[in-house]
UniProtKB/TrEMBL annotation:
It comes from the Bacteria. Transmembrane segments: none annotated. This is Acetyltransferase. GO terms for molecular function: acyltransferase activity, transferring groups other than amino-acyl groups. InterPro entries: Acyl_CoA_acyltransferase, Bact_Acetyltransf, GNAT_dom. It comes from Ancylobacter defluvii. SUPFAM superfamilies: Acyl-CoA N-acyltransferases (Nat). Keywords: Acyltransferase, Transferase. Residues 7-152 form the N-acetyltransferase domain. Pfam families: Acetyltransf_1.
Length: 152
């Protein structure tokens, strides 16, 4: 039985793309307000298309009314998580953990992702979820430092 108020997991449908793009922009604007993520909305839509065409699964967390609260992308063959996003109004409510658990169900051997090193909230979340830093890098678009993290 699903607890009252718990998010429901749904496989991605293109009808969700406007809501996904909105929550992606709002989430990133909250996390890193110095970057104009509205200007990157088109990039996200294109990126999701590329991922889906490449066999990546997109799982969404929705409320009882079907509103998208968050989403995760997971490559079943590599375990790579390209995107994990939860609307800021729902941060701290277990939705990101539910989505990571959904990703782990798709790729049980391991999950790998890159996170902006300056995104302290995300780094703390991934560490608490069992991820460890395996490498450091640089975001090719922003030039900001990134961490490669993995959970086995």
């Amino acid at each position: 039985m699903i607890p009252p108020g718990a998010p429901l997991l749904r496989s991605f449908g293109w009808e969700q793309m406007p809501a996904i793009a909105n929550l992606w922009v709002e989430s990133w604007q909250e996390a890193m307000p110095e970057i104009d993520f509205e200007a990157r909305r088109g990039w996200l839509c294109h990126r999701i298309g590329q991922l889906v065409e490449g066999g990546v699964r997109v799982e969404t967390a929705v409320d009882a009314a079907g509103r998208v609260l968050g989403f995760v992308t997971i490559d079943p063959s590599s375990g790579y998580v390209d995107q994990l996003v939860v609307h800021p109004d729902h941060w701290g409510r277990g939705i990101a953990r539910t989505l990571i658990d959904a990703a782990a169900a798709v790729s049980p051997a391991s999950l790998t992702l890159d996170v902006n090193e300056e995104n302290d909230r995300a780094v703390r979340f991934y560490t608490a979820a069992g991820f460890t830093v395996t490498a450091r890098g640089t975001n090719p678009t922003s030039g900001r430092p990134t961490l490669r993290m993995q959970r086995r």
